[in-house]
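Homework help board

Subject: predicted structure for assignment chain

Our instructor gave us this sequence and asked us to write out the predicted structure in token form, then describe one feature. I got the tokens but I'm not sure how to describe them. Can anyone check?
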Amino acid sequence: MGSRTSPISQPIIIRRAVARDAKRLTRLVRGSGAYRGQYASAVAGYRVGPDYIEAHRAFVAVDADEPGGRALGFYSLVLAPPELDLLFVADEAQGRGIGRLLVAHMQSEARAAGLDRVMVVSHLPAADFYHRVGAIRTGTALANPPAVPWDRPEFEFRIPSE
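My token output:
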């Protein structure tokens, strides 16, 4: 995924994404180094639109020290069925704990929504990340050509009640 850098040193705010975030979230998806080469077709033309942001629980991690808050990563939680639909961290921000912060935030949101588990169909290069942050491998999502011509690991986050 990206090079490993130092842990988070700047203040990070995780806030609900709004329609005006759509273009920069789309840039995070399309610019992800994890989707270069053989995986490029999965995000070619992909768009995180204002309608998507309004329909789902999308949250963005921003650098609190920058005017306008530079987007460092984001995720989207779908409630029915419970699924972590998207999770991206900007390439230059990877290895600093932002992905872990986003997962912890997602788990808190899932708990608040009364969910006891959240599924994620992982991109192959992200599988180790999900394992490291506590997701349990549950199966395999079969290829769905032409959009996704490869099998992907399925994981589940168990959300304990507080």
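Reply (TA_rk): Your tokens look well-formed. For the description, you could write something like this. The chain is about 20% helix and 30% strand. That's the kind of observation they're looking for.
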